[in-house]
Amino acid sequence: MKFLVSGHGSIRNSIKFGFQIWCVGVTKLECVTGEGRARERIWLYERLRSNDFETRGRVASTRLNFPFLFLHQLYALSLPMAGHTESVLPLHVIDLAENDRHLLAQKVKKACLEHGFFYLINHGIDLKLIDKVFEQSKLFFDLPVDEKMRSLQDNNYRGYVPIGKETLNPIESKQGDSREAYFIGWEMSEDHPLALKPLHGPNQWPSKDLLPEWRETLETYFYKLLEVGHCVASLVALALDLEADYFRHMFMAPAVALRPLHYIGEISCPEEGRFGTGPHGDYGMLTFLATDENRGLQVCRARDGEPKLWEDVPPKKESFIVNLGDMLERWTNGLFKSTQHRVVTDGIDRYSVAYFYDPDYDTVIECLPTCHSEEFPPNYPPITMGDYFKMKFTSRAQGSSNMNSTPI
Ligand SMILES: O=C(O)CCC(=O)C(=O)O
Ligand SMILES: [Fe+2]
Which pLDDT tens digit goes with each residue over 97-114? Predict the structure, then answer.
């Protein structure tokens, strides 16, 4: 039995150098790491099934000081630190090529009631554009830190968010989320009357000399996704027995946000409060997520379950992962769920691009007309989108929970 790795480098390097890695897991085996990051007491899972290796398709990099390096074939290794489970949540698939809007709306309703998450396919965005967004995103994150810091996030949250700067779950995380991000919002000149409001204003853009195609690529994607957002919002409206264009007038200068993300190849350890992204519900209405081919996203369907069951949501080629945010949960009187999710990473860099589809700042979020009755009165008083977000940001800064669990 052979296992190996790290010492002169990570498994990532081993892969780079063409070593074939097999990833198997199962039996718990305490493993002493020896020198170095002994704190990282790890459990090395290994199983060797002669002639019958089960590839799980994932490799965990260790960065631990194992004394061995470079075995041509690695028969073991897979670390539990990344918290990956055996269970994959089979999300519903919403196909926008489906002609029957009402049938589609029923499928959306089912997905919103059951998981609060679904895959979206045939969304109409050119896959070449999506590839280019990922390529440009990577170019930015590959820049020297000094260069990235030139577009450091401003008071409107626009711009670069350095590694570890955000902690989406200040209760469960012991350190900042191991990712860096960029925030692009609705473009607005400084002298626009709305620019006086929080979150509004011009975007920051990386230097055109360094990244000549960045702005155009990201802006094109931003506005294409807005159309997809409108389309899904109309299905959500139909699913709630509202007119298809019910939400449309609330998106005149919306607080939408495009966020390229880069997970820096750290090893998450949920038990020790180390995450790529800490467990959270998104604040807004709908989120559209594109990811690279690396897994990492997990959801927890039972918010108050103990222990919590986290299920993997693997990337699905050519599709978006769509989820509902806390604001939509509140808007629907708790009918549609904002499902908690997190990202655990296993030592391999991961890129994703999230798009938060949220309405105008002054939109009043008041229990939707079809979501209350005499027996089921509104649980929450009306609040503007802007005030709701302020409340969310404040509670995060104060280190408290953000979910809609207690009516306010
Ligand atoms: O990167 C991902 O897969 C998810 C990110 C996320 O949930 C968020 O930023 O809200
Ligand atoms: Fe999220």
Answer: 999 999 999 999 999 999
ipTM reported for the complex, 2 dp = 0.99
Residue type (1 letter), 331: W
63 lines ligand 1 (CB under 6 A): no
Whether the Cβ atoms of residue 265 and residue 309 lie closer than 8 Å to each other = no
Q: Which residues contact 109 (CB under 8 A, 6 or more apart)?
A: 239, 240
Which DSSP helix (H) or strand (E) runs through 136? helix 127-141
**What is the model's pTM?**
0.81
Q: What is the pLDDT of residues 149-163, one digit of tens each?
A: 999 999 999 999 999
Angle between helix 127-141 and 214-239 (nearest 10): 130
Cβ–ligand 1 distance for 297 under 6 Å, the answer yes
Q: Which domains occur in the chain, in start order?
A: 10-78 (no CATH), 92-397 (2.60.120.330)
Query: 3-state DSSP call for residue 255?
Result: coil
Distance between CA atoms of 313 and 323, rounded to whole angstroms? Answer: 12
Q: Is 312 helix (H, G, I), strand (E, B) or coil?
A: strand
CA angle 151, 152, 155 (to 5 degrees): 115
298 lines ligand 1 (CB under 6 A): no
In this structure, which residues have their CB less than 5 angstroms from ion ligand 2? 282
CB 303 within 8 A of CB 378: no
According to DSSP, the residues that pair with 128 across neighbouring strands are none
Q: Dig out the tokens for 234 from the structure.
A: 């109309």
- Contacts of 352 by beta carbon, 8 Å cutoff, 6+ apart: 260, 261, 263, 289, 290, 291, 292, 296, 297, 343
166 lines ligand 1 (CB under 6 A): no
User: Residue 31 belongs to what H/E stretch?
Assistant: strand 30-31
